[in-house]
Design a protein that fits this description.
three-stranded antiparallel beta sheet, globular, seven-stranded antiparallel beta sheet, Jelly Rolls, 24% helix, 8 helices, alpha+beta, 286 residues
Length: 286
């Protein structure tokens, strides 16, 4: 694996972002975080937009897709979020994308996961089979950015991830996504639980083996997802992003350059396509 050309990036915020640190952490652990990237007021606005979109999606057929009992995923169009540009153009988000995916990265997914009260353990999994470029060249060609809309506590079903497992080929996994249960003790020995707080952003490869855990609380835990591809990664085939002309024209050039979705006169609500059948029932022993 080559290393990023620029070790340090200066941003308009006068912060300095360590590209080598980003590269090393994502290749080593499969996940990295930026604490306090946004204000709590910004996250509260995000939560309002997510709640509105969630209510709309659950009110129509195929508006939300199950990711396990009491656990849902909803894909939305970018302009459903008042803070979309703030997120897409955040200096740290840009630096991570450029470092890992190259200057021509594309945003292919905007959505959110909602583990509701009563959600059980998911089976250990990755979100899609490992692509050839990762198996053969040990190069990551997609990332998922996550923004929590709540302060995550232990009883809320924290996200759990097994660092370093992004490099497993998965050729012996069920559907190349679900490792055999005999491997669970190894993943549990590696596992790290994440407790992000309002304002934090994380970036991860969806190939690192992970799961949502049991939500013992009486609160839901919505988490925004921003999916980004390197050129040719192909994950855009699983998503239906679009923007209206007015929204497109309002975007900064620097954001438009990374958004190649259709520009339309009127948006059509998204019918969820990115189903992961192995998650629907949750972990039988969860």
């Amino acid at each position: 694996m080559s290393t990023p050309a620029d070790a340090l990036t200066s941003t308009s915020d006068a912060a300095v972002i360590d590209r080598v640190g980003i590269w090393e952490a994502l290749n080593r652990d499969g996940i990295i975080a930026n604490k306090g990237a946004f204000s709590r007021d910004w996250v509260q606005q995000l939560r309002e937009d997510v709640d509105t979109a969630y209510a709309e999606a659950r009110g129509r057929e195929n508006g939300a897709v199950g990711r396990g009992p009491h656990r849902w995923y909803v894909e939305i169009h970018p302009e459903a979020l008042r803070g979309f540009v703030d997120l897409a153009d955040h200096p740290w988000v840009r630096a991570v994308c450029e470092t890992m995916l190259g200057p021509d990265y594309q945003i292919v997914e905007v959505g959110f996961d909602v583990p509701e009260p009563g959600a059980i353990n998911q089976p250990w999994h990755r979100d899609f089979p490992s692509p050839q470029v990762t198996r053969q060249e040990r190069r990551l060609n997609s990332l998922a950015f996550n923004v929590t809309t709540v302060d995550t506590d232990e009883d809320m079903g924290p996200f759990e991830i097994a660092p370093t497992t992004q490099w497993e080929t998965g050729e012996d996994f069920d559907h190349e996504m679900f490792p055999d249960r005999s491997n669970y003790p190894r993943y549990e020995a590696l596992a790290v639980r994440k407790y992000p707080q309002m304002g934090d952003i994380s970036a991860r490869t969806a190939l690192t083996i992970h799961r949502g855990t049991i939500n013992h609380s009486d609160k839901s835990r919505p988490v925004l997802v921003l999916g980004v591809d390197a050129p040719g990664a192909g994950n855009d085939e699983h998503h239906d992003l679009a923007v209206t002309r007015g929204f497109w024209e309002s975007l900064p050039d620097r954001v438009r350059a990374h958004l190649s979705c259709p520009v339309v006169d009127e948006l059509t609500p998204i019918t969820q396509k990115h189903t992961i059948e192995g998650l629907v029932m949750g972990d039988a022993e969860g």
